[in-house]
Structures are given as structure tokens and as C-alpha cells.
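>> received
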Amino acid sequence: MRIAMLTGDTGISRSGIHNYIYNLIQNFPRPYDFDLTLIAHKRKTIFSGIPTIAPYCPFPGFSSFFWSQCLSMNNKILRDFDLVHNPAHYPLLIKPGKRYICTIHDLTPIFFPQFHPRWRSIYTNLGIQSMVKKSDILISVSSQTKNDLISHFGVSNEKIQVIYEGAAEQFRPLDPSVVIAIRKKYRLSAHFILFVGNLEPRKNIPTLVRAFAQCLLQHPDLQLVIAGRKSWMFKEIFDTVAALHLEG
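>> returned
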């Protein structure tokens, strides 16, 4: 069986859906009892030893949207695969492969567009509409998203399989010496609140910062650690930190 997975720029970006793709590939049982091919932005990827196809895209600094359209226009790349998995809302114009499976992570850009750049809401809407029409099976990572697909897009219950996300192998107790070294590196106290995620409105980080300011009234030694890259519309986070004089 010949299987293709659309990995896009996984490796360039490693957050959210990209972690989903990375861990899915890393945890396929080996040796494979199928032929796996990756469809990526670049031929050289972080997945060593797996054949990779990089469709030509003429746009400098191309986005996933333009990459998806370039891939759609090169239908012959995907036509002969027995199964194609689209795990990241890439809006293909064609149905690739003999069987097509797509993963839908959430519909927040559609239901809560105020938390996203406008282009992202449009892109997600187009992508999911395409996936709903062309896929044989949809994977939803939660029952809520399955219900949203049924109510908003009219997808039949039988077409959606809920498969929850697992925890990657790095989420495990660490050796105490490693913990001490990390605390020393980042000047962390014994007690702190940790937030991990991209800095963007839907994470509601300003409310976390305000709640932390209230906690400090009774626990002055507590720390708040925010670990994540700047995504979009993140100015309010830093404005809130400054307004509450928590820069330190």
C-alpha cells in the first residue's frame, strides 16, 4: 500500500498541528508494512530516510495556501497513492489519491474570527469546506469538533472518526538534576505557573496575567512562566504585563 502524508513546513515550525504531524510520523510502527511518502515544502526534511516530494511553488516565501494550490495543480504527484492523509487543513482543489483522509483540529477561526487574522479565517473555511466535500473519512481530535462539523457543515455522523491526541514521549518525570539545571538556567523558584503555547488571542493569556497578579497578593514568591513564540495579535499580552507592572 502506498501512503502519502502532507507535512507542509513541519520542521520549520514545530507547534500545534505541526507537533501532531511530527509525532504521528515518529510513532508509526517500524518497519513500515506500507510505503510512506511525505509531501513537504522542501525535499530535505527532519524525517530522515522517508522519501519526500516537494512540489514546485514559484512564490518566494510561499505560504501554505499557495503551496496547497501548487500541489493541486500537480495532481499527478498524488494521483496514484492508495491513501493520502491531509492532517493540517491544506485546501486542495482536487481529491488526491484513491482514498483521502483529513484531520480537523478545531473550527475556532470560523466560530471565533475575532481571535484570528482575517486571512486565517478565510483560509480555514475554504480548507475545511474542501476537505469535507472531497474526503472519504474525517478525523476529529475531539467530540466537540465532530459535533461542530455536523452542525455547521452538515457532515454525516458516519463520516467522522474521533481520535484523541496522545502525549509525546517527552512528557514524563525528569531526573531531579535536569530539573535543577533548568530552574537555574531560567532563574525559576520552586513554585511557578507554567503556560506553554503560541502567543495569540484565543489562548486568553491576558486573563492569565491578571489572575496571576491577584495570586501575588497572597503568594508574593510565585512566578508565572510563559513559553511560546509570538504568533499574531499578541500586543495585548505585553500591554497587560506592563499595566500591572509585572515586567520582572
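>> Residues 8 and 41 are 5 Å apart (CA to CA).
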